[in-house]
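Project standup — Tuesday

K.O.: blocked on the structure for the chain from last sprint. Re-posting the sequence here as requested.
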Amino acid sequence: MSTNLQFPEFFEPVKWNAINGNYNFLSTQFGSLIRVYKEGDEWPDLDGMQFALIGVMEDRRAVNNNGCALAPDHVRGWLYKLFQSNWELRCADLGNIRAGNQPGDTDFALKTVIGSLLRKNIIPIIIGGGNELAYAQYLAYEAIEQTVNLVSIDPEFDLGSADDELQNKSWLSKIILHQPNMLFNFSNIGYQTYFVEQSTVDLMAKLNFDVHRLGQCRAKLEDIEPIIRNADMVAFDMSSIRRSESPAHEQAGPNGFTGDEACRLARYAGISDKCSSFGIYEMNPAYDQSGQTAHLVAQMVWCFLEGYYNRKKDYPFTDISEYTKYRVFLKDHKHEIVFYKSSKSDRWWMEVPYPPNQRLKFERHALVPCTYSDYQLACEEEMPDRWWQTFQKLF
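H.V.: unblocked you, prediction finished:
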């Protein structure tokens, strides 16, 4: 029986000729492999699809970055020319969600589409618009009644204040205050200290949120993998990449991740067995140079897909009884920490106890991704920060 989802009323079909002209794609290029909702065509059949590309033509709340609504078609011009690797791409391109009469209408459309895709285990990849669209991305998880680990790759926290209207600099406070509260953990990757008030950093610590400075991340990028491995949704702000490699933002700065590092982070998101939605926001073609940033976004999407097709089906898909188990007792803290190592991927997790009455709500958060370094730290009688932060949330 068909499980096809129909949303043509929300979308503007892809202007195929305007993007690709007379380009003849080879059979292994994305332009031949992706089921595209083109002008004049019927809505694509989503049966068997693993991914759905969603462009969003919304920039009315993108403060100091008007024009990012035009990003999706610029990215498509580069994305369709890429080749699949040693995997079989199963992806549909649904076109661009039109800007509604009010920005909230756009949010409703995006939330509805993502929620329906999540129910069918189709991973949405969102391109275009301001970073505040991460709020609609988050709200979509209400459709599957799931608590959420959110990772934001951003030079700022975008917290704003409780009284601010929803904008690209205030969306996080809307998520924190939203009821019902579905947020289990928020992690920021790559914040730049000179853009962030110290009081806000202190607030993140009080909330037991996970924040990591740019220099910290770049010094040992592989340590960021467990943070992204624990994410249900990832929101990537393109202003987190340095201007020399990603100029397509009105306020692109001299410091940030490199293009290579951005692709590695996207791959970490793809290879995570938990990550079920990926958004790339704030790319503004008006400031791009020779399509440099659009090309980078296309490669980031490719890396996310490549990561997905190399998923190992570790936790939560594999029974932890199949892992190698290590027990470490911390005398000073009077805690025993149980570590697990996957034989399939050599990745590490640590177990965090939680109240029995919270079992159903928090069971999926009981194993925390970690590194071998966390295990070594515990062996030296030191409490890993990841363990303690999660323990405090559960209790």
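K.O.: great, moving the ticket to review. The radius of gyration is 21 Å. The mean pLDDT is 93.
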